[in-house]
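Quick one: structure tokens for this chain, please?
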Amino acid sequence: MNHGIYLRCHTCILDEETLEKGGKRKQDPLPRHALVLDTETTTDALQTLNFGVYQFCEMTTGSKYLCLEEGIFYGDELGADQQVVLRTYVTQQNSRRANDELKLKLYERRVFVEKVMYTAVQAGAAIVAFNLPFDLSRLAVEYRVARGAGGRGWSFVVFRYKNKSKGEWVPNTFRPRVQLRPKDSKAAFIRLAGGDMNQPYRVGRFLDLKTLVWALRNKSLSLDSACREFKVPGKLDNYVPSGRVTPEEIKYCRQDVRATVGLLNALIAEFKNYPLGDLPPERAYSAASIAKAFLKTMGVISPQQKFQLDNQTNGICMQAYYGGRAEIRIRHTPVPVVYTDFTSQYPTVNTLLGLWRVLTADRVQVKDATDEIRALLQSLTIDSLFDQRTWPKLAFFALIQPQADIFPVRTVYGDGQTVDQTNIGLNPLTSTAPVWSAGPDVVGSALTSGRPPKILRAIRIEPIGVQKGMNSVRLGTGSIDPYTDDFFRKVIEERKGKQKSDPLYYFLKILANAGCYGIYAEVNKLQVGKNKAKKIGIFSGELSGTERTCVMEVPGPWYFPPVASLITAGGRLLLAMLERMVADAGGTYLMCDTDSMATRNVE
């Protein structure tokens, strides 16, 4: 059966004007002040704001946030009887407080956002919560689709004033809105937008501790489990929110804020111990953010800035790019298997292929390697691939003429599926049009097909010289020297010597997982209005063209297709080697997934 295959491409914006809007205001990596808050809502589907608790904190000389002011705010439409509960609670607490205790304040929501929140923003304070997008949405009185977020975000109206002529509350256009654009299921980009441009407000600093925990631990945790992870007091035990304003509910919310402040201090203490340069905690969206900041601290210049590889070569490498191999061979049948997996597969592939040498080079050059690669494929054996000296030779790209050769294929597989539902499988591929493939996939095809594919042309991206200005970075009792150490090997070796109870164990795991692959394939969707459509260049292998579009992919700061394509291809080659050995032993496999395979002996 004939299928159309789908290939990745490299794109670039050809318009002369840049998409960046001026320089960013320099700020301290750690905010001096933090407004920490939590909200309680009704328990129905609307989850309307009942009340919330806040602490305004200042960082002490010991880099810990200390509460300067604590208060409660309540919803604009909260019933009078429930307001009485709040006032009674605040009055009682203030009458019983010791001399060194802070006086508890009480505000209506509309007063709180003006007097406390807006003032904090103007002072450069960070707005902090655990699952901050939810709490901000409870403070909002209206929401709209954010114009500058390509329809993927929301613009929250938080500030209002009473229009005397109309006798109603309307959005305050002299105050900014809170714009929220989801990054993924773990993080969101939050900033202030709109308002009167003559007002000296900032874009704001918004720190979601749930996201920071994800970045530092690669775990999605609740507030309580995060407090246990970082060994600070957590939520009240065995209390279920009632959706009403009661003294117990207020006590519960106050403890949540105390727990959030404790978690904030624990996270900042760990965060500032790592060599992350000037990365602010609110911009640590994921493990990738941590890895990029670490490489920057080491002084490694990103490939985009340093190499400026031509679009055609980037297009060749992107055509060869596929994700990890994942498939099931035996379905709906229980069989005994032996589960195998590769330790730190992608860091291992990086080291075997010598990619750190590429990333730290002074420059790179594209070299024709057609005759060399043809000869190499004739001499390779499964045994030679177990010699690590062979692997640097596999860092090439080849234009192949597929003739029932086994290669990754991206196409529509299921009946009724559409172009938007393509999947990747390893299949016999025949094509009248030649296709570019990464070296490890070419070798893997030779292993599984039993013969090398037809090579029309091959290239290498060779490193030249070594970048100047890099520096050694200390990690715990060890260090990484970019001139003498292979970063990918060193991070794994350092991690092997750590206990799981050591926070550095998780940091090294993050560096190993994020710093060795994803950042080199990062592209971010950008959508602009129709009147701002851009002319883009499209490059994929031997093909190129242009078009005007409102939706485009913008490369991430460490985007580098040659490295990204070789890494995942190297992972597939390791699986191909295992598959070949299992087949030679008379066995087969049940399934495989990126770095693992469940094998079965058929005898």
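Residues 247-271 form the longest helix (25 residues).
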